Amino acid sequence: MHKITFLLCDNMLATSATLPFEMLRAAESAARGRGGRNVEPVIIQTTAINKLPMKTSVGFPLLPDILLEEAGNSDIIYLPALWRNPRPVVKKHPEILGWLRKAYENGAMICAVGTGTCFLAEAGLLNDKPATTHWHYFDQFQRDYPRVKLKRQYFITQAGNLYCCASVNAMADLTVHFVKRIYGQAIASFVERNFSHEIRRSYENTSYYEGSTKQHPDEDIVQAQIWLQDNYHRQVKISEVASRFEMSVRTFNRRFKNATGQSPLQYLQGVRIEIAKDLLQTSNLNVSEVADKIGYQDVGYFTALFMKMLSTSPREYRATVRAKLFTVD
What is the pTM of this model? Predict the structure, then answer.
């Protein structure tokens, strides 16, 4: 069971809570529609320092489900963006800071949006760690929290279990990443298409990872990943790749899975599908030609794999992304 908690407070930007909330509910609904009762339950709750309606920046009230002390342990916590100067709200509620410190110590992943990153900085959780915030508040943030390593050029930063998003759009990208972790790629793609049809840069390409957390220490597997990336267009046999790196197939599969969380075949399929997405978006190759370019001679297999991973066909995907490409003569 996963528990996701949204902090509510006065003067917050409503969409910094309502948008990810709706995305997570959509993911849950889609997963139940596909997996029925086998879907792992997810509890989504809102919390605040009292049970009074929290007045958002536009005056729209949000009523919390539970008090802060009733929230219990959470797997993911969302901190909202605060409108204009965040300091009065952050300084006014030291109990929120204590709650965040305890949640962090208990292993919660905490996602702060825009100026909501000030909660984490004020709690001391971002000291000597990378962070980002809304662009309008960069200079003030750096003055207020000089120990934080502000990354102005990134929309999302990650330092262990602490995530900072520069905007609501960046937070939506991060939410898709969380959905992928909970429900898998197909549900994440479904949510992304339904909430953001426009062409977006991926979460990974807009993010800063403390200590290069995307990497791992198994140098042989790193080299195998590079080889697969360079040779995705060939007819690849995993047994031959294992032999190339002087391992048995069993050892290669085990070490690859331990290092990346995927089997070599899953990794190769992921590389190929990402290339296919780019070709469908930017080239005039037909689906059969795209399949051949990425190493699949059987267009039926390619289409089925594409459907499995993205829950849409290559043709439907092209129609969606092409509809959002605009040019100026």
Answer: 0.69
From the list 171, 175, 16, 154, the residue with the least C-alpha distance to 82 is 16
Indicate the pairing of strand 42-48 with strand 54-55. Answer: unpaired
pLDDT tens-digit profile of 39-60? 778 999 999 999 999 988 888 8
Helix, strand, coil shares of the chain as percentages rounded to 5?
Answer: 50, 15, 35
Q: How far is CA 235 from CA 56, 287, 294, in A?
A: 56, 18, 9
Single-letter amino acid, residue 81: A
Q: What is the rounded distance in angstroms from the CA atom of residue 84 to the CA atom of residue 161?
A: 26
Instruction: Find the angle CA(92)-CA(95)-CA(101) to the nearest 5 degrees.
Output: 120
State the alpha helices, DSSP H only, in the chain.
15-35, 87-92, 94-105, 117-122, 138-144, 168-183, 185-195, 219-230, 238-244, 249-260, 264-282, 287-293, 299-310, 314-322
